[in-house]
Structure formats: structure tokens, C-alpha cells
Amino acid sequence: MVKDSALRGYLLEESLAWLLRFSGYRLLVHEDQDPVELVTQGDTLRVRGRGALHQVDALGEFAFTPAFSMPVRLFLEAKFYKERCGLEIVRNGHGVLHDVNENFMTHAGTRPRQRYKYSYALFSANGFTADAQKYALAHQISLVDLSGASFAWLLGAIGATAWTLHEAQKYQGPSETFPMTWLRTELRKALETSPAQLLPTVTVPEGKFKQAASAAIADFVTVLRQHSDAELLLGFPAAPFILPLAAADQQAFVEYADAMPDHAVRIRRRGSGSSAEWTLSPLSAEGTYELAFKLPEHVEDWISGITEKERRRTMEVKEQFLSAITIYRMNGSGVRAYQLRYEASSLSRA
Asked: Counting beta carbons within 10 angstroms of the beta carbon of residue 288, is it exposed (0 to 12), middle (13 to 18) or buried (19 or more)?
């Protein structure tokens, strides 16, 4: 019997692939998309490393190549644990990243081969331990904490769906295993996160299990589509971390950013310590849109470490790390870049 925690993690992976559908990454799901670097083993996608093949939860390829770099691919790992992710999870990510980025050798007379720069982002429903954060910072592993209020609706839907699927297993025979490949296929088909021709043909026997599981999947997809305005944008600040930006009204942000791709913003911090959440909105048209995000816990601990210095440290973080945030977003077949600038002097003038 598959554990409820495993189902929660898988549903989170597929949800993130859907939420990131506009963030400039193309989802890679099959070796046919790159027979040299990718290997499909059963229902599992693996990436070739120098010393081993590495399983990947979700793999995305950035739509364009940054200057003075190679094409970028992103390992997306999702964990829905009841506790915070520890050092061993991040250490595993570093090992995978190191191995796949070294999987390149030159040989005289051989055909030229494409090379990629792999990055690694670990998403957690309940944050990370202090040791995990320190290790990730040292080895350029991006940690994304989804425990903020902006993602409560998503984590709640995942928890309810995972419980329903877990309970549906009582309708299976004693020798039957949970059909994860079928679940993955049904979700990706419904959410349109994978090319249809690359999805395997998988069936499960008719009966009470299929009825219960199919209903749970349909309800989950409905909840996601009811939040079609929800979108997980990735913000890239001048800092050693990335920002998961939740848009309360996706269309409002897109319309304003398309008209003003480079604009000043107002940044606010609400709460304190690990519960603090930040929001940003356009300075000259406040209320037009609002993006919410959380900073890494070790940054929040430093800000809140000395009460009388909390206000000044908040300002220092804004000026040092959040002065320029770049967002990439798919716009049709191309990618648009938006620059959100925080300038304390502009706020004073305003």
C-alpha cells in the first residue's frame, strides 16, 4: 500500500509543473525529447550523470540561453513532509547536480554534442532545517518554502486528495499495487503539462478503486483550474536564492508588466520570524497587482534576531537583496523579461 506522504509528494510535483507552466520552462518527460541526456526506464525519467543515472521528479528546460552560459535545465524536487526537510535531502540534490554537470567528455573526431547547465530547486511544504539552508547556500541549491499563506489552498487540496486516494486502496486486491503510472498519466493529460503523444497508454481494471481514484483526480484538477489565475512566478533577485512569487490575480500582473516591463515597486513585510510573508506591488499604481513571497528562514532569523534592529535590518535586506528582481514569463512562443526595482529614494519622493 502506497503511503499517504508519497501521494502528497507526487501531487505536489505535478501541481508545481502546472503552476510553473508560464515561467519560461518547457517540461521534459521522455527520452525522445533528448535521447543523449535522458533515459526512460518504465515510467521513470532519468538523467545521465558521469557516474550514474539519476531519477528526476520533474525536469524543465529554460526557453532561452542566458548570456555567457549554456542552455539551462532545472531539476525540480518536491517534498511534502510533515516536518522540515533536512540536510540529507539537500546533500542528495548536490550530489545529483555535481554528477550530471560533469557528464561531458571530448573525443577527437566525434560528432559535436550539446551541453547543458543543470540547476536544482527543492520545494518543501514545511520549510527546511537550518543545516539544510546553510548547505544549500554553500552549494547553490535553490530552496523554495511553500508554507506561506499564499499556498495554503494548494497544500490543503493536495492533502485532501492524497487522503482520498490512499483510502481508495482498500478496494484493491491484496496483490495489487497502487498504479502510480496511471495516476501520473491521468494528471498530466488533464492538466496538459505533457505532450499527449509522449504519455504512455496505461489502464486500470474497472471497479470501485478506479471509480474512487478517478473522482479524486477529477476533483483535484477542478480545484486547480478554479485557481487558474494562480501562478507561481520565479523571481531572480540579486541574491543567492530565488523567490517563489504567488500572484493573487495573474491577469492583473501580466497586463501591468506587459505595459511596464521595468517599473519601481513597493515592498512590505508582514509578520515576524519564520511566519513573515512579503508582498510587492507597483509604486506608481499600488493595488493594481500584488505578488507574495517568503524569504529563506535564515534571513528571517537574522532580521528578527534583535527586536530593536528589526526595522533597520528589513530595510537592509530590501536594499541589498531585493533592489532588482527579474521575472521571466512565457508570452506566446517567446519569453518576456520583467524588471521590478526597489528604490528607497523613490519611496521617499512618493
From this structure: middle
Q: Say which residue, 250 or 206, is predicted with more confidence.
A: 206
Within 8 A by CB and 6+ apart from 145, the residues are 124, 127, 128, 244, 294, 296, 297
Q: Note the Cα 30 to chain centre separation in Å.
A: 19
Q: Which of 149, 150, 125 is nearest to 248 (CA)?
A: 150
Question: Which range, 64-68, 183-187, 306-310, 338-342, is most confident?
Answer: 338-342
How many C-beta atoms surround the C-beta of residue 303 within 10 A? 22
pLDDT at position 345 is 64
Copy the grid coordinates of residue 218.
477529477
| Predicted TM-score of the model (pTM) | 0.83
Instruction: Look at residues 156, 122, 152, 154 and name the one whose alpha carbon lies nearest to residue 241.
Output: 122
Q: Do the Cβ atoms of 81 and 123 come closer than 8 Å?
A: no
Residue 84 is placed in which grid cell? 522540515
- What's the Rg (C-alpha) of the chain? 21
- The answer on pLDDT for 64 being more than 60 is yes
Burial class (CB in 10 A: 0-12, 13-18, 19+), 18: buried
> Residue holding cell 510553473?
20
User: Could you tell me if 229 and 249 are in contact, meaning their C-beta atoms sit under 8 angstroms apart?
Assistant: yes
